[in-house]
Amino acid sequence: MATYEKVLVAVDLSSESDVVLQKAMQISDPDAELNLVYVQEPMDNVYVGIVPQSAAFSGLGDLEAQLGEELKEKLAALGKKFDLPEDKLHILHGSPAHEIHRFAETYATDLIVIGTHGQKGLQLLLGSTANAVLHGAGCDVLSVRIGTE
Fold first, then answer.
1. Buried-most residue among 49, 53, 82, 99 (CB within 10 A)?
2. 115, exposed or middle or buried, with CB in 10 Å at 0-12, 13-18, 19+?
3. CB contact at 8 A, 42 and 64
4. DSSP state of 123
């Protein structure tokens, strides 16, 4: 059986990201190229309709930049923990599923590994990032169950 040589590991930078990365490393070729990816969704997309557009929220861009720095630090720490080179750590900006698909296509990825919380009920109807990635990917996708039920 052929092994995967170009793997995109999409993480949410939670404590469960280790599980997703470990699984990717277990099933990949030992010399595989692993790209660790986190997608930062723009705050104005996340909070549209919730955050009033007023002077009180004019600092949203600054807050987003500060969050971006914190995310870089978390991604670097995760990469260091698993001995990944700095040039294989990526923070993308936009819609998570779209950016993961774009990255996978650009880097000719063989496999996308992503965590899922195994949503049920209303959450399942609304969809999830893992589900959106699965249904739009041009390569294999491994969904790793994480969290407690």
1. 99
2. buried
3. yes
4. H
The strand pair at 111-116 and 4-10 is best described as: parallel
Half-sphere exposure of 1 (CA within 13 A, CB side): 5
pTM of the model: 0.82
Asked if 13 and 74 count as a contact pair (C-beta separation under 8 A), the reply is yes
Domain 4-145: state its class: alpha beta
Contacts of 4 (CB under 8 A, 6+ apart): 27, 28, 29, 32, 110, 111, 140
Tell me: the pLDDT tens digits for 107-123? 999 999 999 876 555 44
* DSSP reduced 3-state for 89: strand
Asked if residue 53 lies in contact with residue 107, where contact means CB atoms within 8 angstroms, the answer is no
User: Can you tell me the mean pLDDT for 27-54?
Assistant: 75
Buried b (16+ CB within 10 A) or exposed e, 49-63: eeeeeeeeeeeeeee
